Structures are given as C-alpha cells and as structure tokens.
Amino acid sequence: MSEQLVHWIHRATRIDHAPEPFDTAHVSIYYPAGDGDRVDPVGTRPVETSFGLLPIAVILPGMNTELTYYRWLALSLARRGYAVMLSSLISEIPPNNFGITPGVDLNAIQPDTYGTKPVGKAIAGVLRLAADLNADGVLAGALDLDNVALIGHSAGGTVALESANAQFFPQIKAVISYASHTMASTVFGWPLGSCLPLSGDAAVMMLSGTQDGLIAAGMRWYADSGDVFDPMERTFETLPATAASADSYLIQLQGANHFSVLQPQDGLWPRADEDFEAGITPEQAEEFIGAAAGLFLNRHLRNDLSAGEDLKSLVESTSFVKARST
To answer: Cβ distance 193 to 227 under 8 Å?
Structure first.
C-alpha cells in the first residue's frame, strides 16, 4: 500500500494589534491529498476525503527556528489525516531583537495581565485563516474547526501551553510541547520560582529530553542557584484534574536534547552550541515523537479511545522513555 500523498498551500494572515510591518503571519498548510485532477494552474491537489473532516494542528516554532525543521512532523500528521498549519511570525525577540517567533504577546505574560488575554498573539489570526480556508478553495468544507491542537517547540511550546484557554479558544482540545515549560521569568516581574498554571481546558502532552542544555542554562531566570527541580515536571503538576485534561502525559526522552525534535539535524539553529550532546539518534526521536503525537491527537481530537490505549503501549514499550500520566 502506497504512502498517503501530502500537499500544501501557502497563505498569510493579519495579526491583531501588531505594528507594521510585523503584523502578518505566513502560514504553510499541509493536508492529505487525493490523486484526482489538480484544481488550479499552480498544481494544487484535491483533499483526500477518506479521513472525513480534518482536525487542525497548529505548529509554533522556537525562537529564530526556521519552519523547515518542523516539516517532517507536518508531513507525519498530514499523512494521518490532519490539516497542519505551520505559522511563522517575524516579531520582537527581547531585548531589542527581531526574528522568527511563535508570536508572544509580551504584554500578556506579566503579573497584572496574565490570564486576561491570549499569550499567543498569532493564534487568533491563524484560526481565522482556517475558517476562511474552510469556506473557499481547495480545503472548503474539509476542516474540523471545532477540534484544534497547538504544537510547539521551546518558546513555541510555552506559548501553546499558556494559550489553551477555553475563554479565548474553546476549539483547542489538545496541546503538545517539546522542551517547554511555564516557569515565569523575573525579567517580566514575576517572583523567583513562579510557575504559571495550566488551565485544564485541553489535554496536554509535554515532551522533554534529559540532555537539554538550553533548559539547564535558562534556570537562572526561574530559580535560585541551589534550587534544583525539573521545570517541565513542575509545570505538569499545575494541570488540574478535569475531564478535559484526562489522559495527559509528561514524557521524558532519555538522551534527547533541546533540538532533538528538529529535522534535519544540521546544527544550523540558534544557540546550538549551548545544547548538550544527544544520546539517542535523530531517527529514534523522530519515530517516537511522530507516532506519539499522532496517537495523542487521535485520542483527543477524534475521541479515538483505542488510540489512547495504543499510546500507552507505545510509551511503555519504548526503552528510552519515562512517563507520567493523569
């Protein structure tokens, strides 16, 4: 049986309350494609209809990390019947820098503003784009707008974890993060050791690696020098016991580092020299993360209970994985 064909389209969407020229996000949308006739002069393929409506996965990058490094994950999920939106926003990287970002609203992560508006300032624009795509064009009528996941790496994962609030985005039912936590930086006025709580409005799968040099280096912003703890574990412990957050996971990949989620492993990402050497292969990381993400989304965006059982089996049978679940 041949591998599911994937195609992509590329769009742009405006970001509310962002200054020009940093008010436009560029989005690549990957989807399972049928083998019918192309639908326009640029060679766009029709949607494969056997999956039914396609739930949506929005991928948010780490700081200054090109979207091409997450293309493998977009392809993996699109082959499983998801519409995957890779969103890139050029905006401020404090202090006084600009680059590729997941779209952090710096005014939404301070003690007097947190929880009053979305932390991810690009998310509303990307979801509006999804609605527009569902109304007209090759994806018209093909998208499940009520079942959305946020997937993020590093700062992108933090934005995802802090944005899954039904008050703002009730359609977000699942969050997947890699090398991310919600410890609050003293730079933004939080007391040392503050951990921003997860809302419980979405199921969460937090992935991390034991060889993460960047997380280790960043602990100076969150804890005293003698205070040793796992920031991902502390974040996971803030998740309330709700029906929405049932079957959530905290998964540690033994030997993975901060950039193990990226493909290809060419080392051309920012701060690569600060990371620790990985103790698992890129192929091991890609195979596990791709499979785990697909099963987790099937469980929570398609309400596939058997996928939840398969995910549990995958976690238990993978030798380099340690996990906690709710």
So the answer is: yes
Domain count, the chain: 1
Which of 9, 285, 316 has its CA nearest to residue 153? 285
Q: Which of 105, 85, 116, 95 is nearest to 23 (CA)?
A: 105
Q: Could you identify the residue written with the tokens 């509310």?
A: 16
Cβ–Cβ contacts within 10 Å for residue 288, how many? 21
- Domain CATH code at residue 126: 3.40.50.1820
Quote the crossing angle between the two packed helices 282-301 and 71-79, to the nearest 10°. 50
Q: What percent of the chain has pLDDT over 70?
A: 99
What are the C-alpha distances in Å from 287 to residues 33, 107, 280, 291? 22, 37, 11, 6
Q: CA-based angle 67:69:75, to the nearest 5?
A: 90
Where in the sequence is the domain holding 193, given as residue range(s)?
Answer: 6-325
Largest CA distance in the chain: 63
For residue 252, the cross-strand partners are 208, 322
**Burial (0-12, 13-18, 19+ Cβ within 10 Å), 139:** buried
pLDDT the model gives residue 1: 47
Question: Under DSSP, is residue 117 helix (H, G, I), strand (E, B) or coil?
Answer: coil
The answer to the question of residue 159 being in a domain is yes
* Residue 1 falls inside a structural domain: no
Distance CA 154, CA 120 (A): 14
Residue type, 31: Y
Q: Where are the alpha helices (DSSP H) in 189-281?
A: 213-218, 231-236
Residue 94 lies in a domain: yes
Query: Does some domain include residue 262?
Result: yes
Are 233 and 248 in contact by the 8 Å Cβ rule? The answer is no
pTM of the model: 0.96
pLDDT tens sequence across 124-165: 999 999 999 999 999 999 999 999 999 999 999 999 999 999
User: Residue 2: what pLDDT?
Assistant: 66
3-state secondary structure of 213: helix
pLDDT, tens digit (0-9, with 9 covering 90-100), for 200-219: 999 999 999 999 999 999 98
